[in-house]
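Sequence, please.
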């Protein structure tokens, strides 16, 4: 049974996610999601850490990055609660095996289910919901089966009005750095 019933994403976390995706439009990108886990049913994502865009299937790099991100999050009284994935193909609407495994690892470290946000690259700057949310539980052998949350369970908190300008005109994505860079 899922304990996460809804996910709220702050404008900061969403902006980082979009800029990371914009910087590497032809690559699959992964990033970590941070939250204050005070509430058990509503997960409020407050920040995101860009993880990778090139070596997305290298487990050792992901382990090191996860360890560093966990240390950083603890200094901010936050927890790594999941990850986001933007597929390299615009038409791809399913999570990758690597993202599923990493989400399962995050769930085991956090001691609760992890959230996995899948970015719909085709609608990331449109008015339609560009994110699908899944929950992943710990305990498998890297064969986690993400469970979809309803589309209405995902909300963007104070979506940044300057986001489109930052992507299309200001090239703000150039300031985004992930562990591959």
């Amino acid at each position: 049974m899922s304990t996460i019933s809804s996910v709220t994403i702050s404008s900061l976390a969403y902006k980082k996610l979009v800029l990371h995706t914009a910087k590497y439009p032809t690559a699959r990108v992964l990033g970590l999601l941070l939250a204050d886990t005070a509430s058990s049913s509503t997960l409020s994502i407050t920040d995101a850490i860009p993880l990778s865009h090139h070596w997305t299937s290298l487990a050792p790099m992901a382990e090191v990055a996860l360890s560093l991100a966990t240390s950083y999050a603890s200094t901010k009284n936050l927890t790594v609660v999941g990850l986001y994935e933007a597929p390299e193909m615009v038409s791809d609407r399913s999570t990758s095996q690597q993202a599923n495994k990493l989400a399962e690892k995050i769930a085991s470290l956090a001691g609760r289910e992890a959230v996995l946000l899948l970015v719909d690259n085709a609608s990331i700057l449109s008015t339609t919901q560009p994110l699908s949310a899944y929950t992943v539980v710990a305990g498998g052998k890297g064969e986690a089966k993400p469970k979809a949350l309803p589309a209405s369970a995902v909300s963007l908190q104070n979506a940044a009005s300057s986001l489109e300008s930052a992507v299309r005109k200001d090239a703000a994505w150039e300031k985004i750095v992930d562990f591959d860079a």
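The domain at 6-158 is CATH 3.40.140.10 (Cytidine Deaminase; domain 2).
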